[in-house]
Amino acid sequence: MMLAVLAFLSSLVAAGALRVSSDQRATALPWVHKSAPPCQCDGAGAFNIWKSCNRTVPKCVFIDLGAADGNTFRDFLNNTYGPVAGCPSGTWEAFLVEANPRFNEPLQQVASHPPGKIAGMTHVESSTAAYMCEATTSFYLDTTNVQTNFWGSSMSVAHPDVQKGNLTKVTVPTVNLNRMLYEHTIPGDWVIVKMDIEGSEFDVLPCLAKSPAASLIDRLYMEQHDPSWGMSGTTLAEMEAAKAELKQRGVDIPPYFSQTL
Q1: What mean pLDDT comes out for the span 34-40?
Q2: d(Cα 211, Cα 45) in Å, to the nearest integer?
Q3: Cα–Cα distance between 224 and 256 in angstroms, integer?
Q4: What is the DSSP secondary-structure string of 71-100?
Q5: pLDDT tens, 7-34?
Q6: DSSP structure string for 96-118
């Protein structure tokens, strides 16, 4: 059975569905390491402390999960994700979430001086991990991939790039995507979520699919990684089911690969 699973995942890698290089396969595919999730799915505000967004004027809302140094935020403002000038009411708001403290300063800089001619508002959640609930977590740092902007940092000890970095870690808070949507978006917004969180999508997406807030998303750009990097045990079949449920609720999920430079 294990050989069949490995063969199937290897075929996905070859097809480009999973971002795992040939030298990583030996460590990335076997389930030899596992991290426990720091908290459980909270899709609707378990403690009744969420406050719904009372804004009435619609806008574009760009939620960047795994914002790195702000490269994809710059892409958003440069119309890579659609013409910003076409945003409802001609304005936008961005939420930039990044757990790696290496990017604290550059992310603040790009947020303070955003490129482009269309005015908007930027919020930065630096040294914070995007997740499905609120807690604190160990976040493991990619210290080796200089050329690709240290793209392999992850909450999971199973990620081969953090293993290469000798499991160097920091402790950070998590932010709940479901709560962000509930408290900061309205149905009239055009909401884009970019998700490149190195395996945690296997925890976040099934939770999102169950959340009432999911229908607030218009388009989800998600980079999907190796399922063993998730911490909740979500299988590829369960991930596909979660994506199908989101699509049924009106979320567009195009193929996506996040550029890192």
Answers
A1: 87
A2: 10
A3: 8
A4: HHHHHHHTTTTS-GGGSGGG-EEEEEEE--
A5: 444 444 344 444 443 334 334 434 445 6
A6: EEE--GGGHHHHHHHHHS--SSS
Tokens describing residue 215: 């229908």
Distance CA 109, CA 125 (A): 13
Nearest to 105 by CA among 68, 134, 152: 68
Torsion of CA 196, 82, 70, 100, to 10 degrees: -10
| 151: DSSP letter | T
Q: Please, are residues 223 and 230 in contact by the beta-carbon 8 Å criterion?
A: no
Tens of pLDDT, residue by residue over 214-238, are 999 999 999 999 999 999 999 999 9
Mean pLDDT of the chain, nearest integer: 85
Residue 243 has φ and ψ, to the nearest 5°, of -65, -40
Q: Which two tokens stand for residue 103?
A: 């990017």
pTM assigned to the model: 0.84
In Å, how far are 29, 57, 161 from 54, measured between CA atoms? 45, 9, 42
3-class DSSP assignment, residue 194: strand
Report yes or no: 196 and 121 within 8 Å, Cβ to Cβ: no
CA distance 65 to 243: 17
pLDDT at 249 over 60: yes
CB atoms under 10 Å from CB of 247, counted, come to 13
Angle of helix 177-184 versus helix 201-210 axis, rounded to 10: 50
Pairing of strands 219-222, 190-195: parallel
Q: What value does the mean pLDDT take over residues 118-140?
A: 94
Of 37, 261, 66, 19, the closest CA to residue 160 belongs to: 19
Structure tokens at 258: 């996040």
User: Beta strands of the chain (E only): which ranges?
Assistant: 60-65, 92-98, 120-126, 129-131, 136-140, 169-176, 190-195, 219-222
Task: Say whether pLDDT at 261 is over 90.
Answer: no
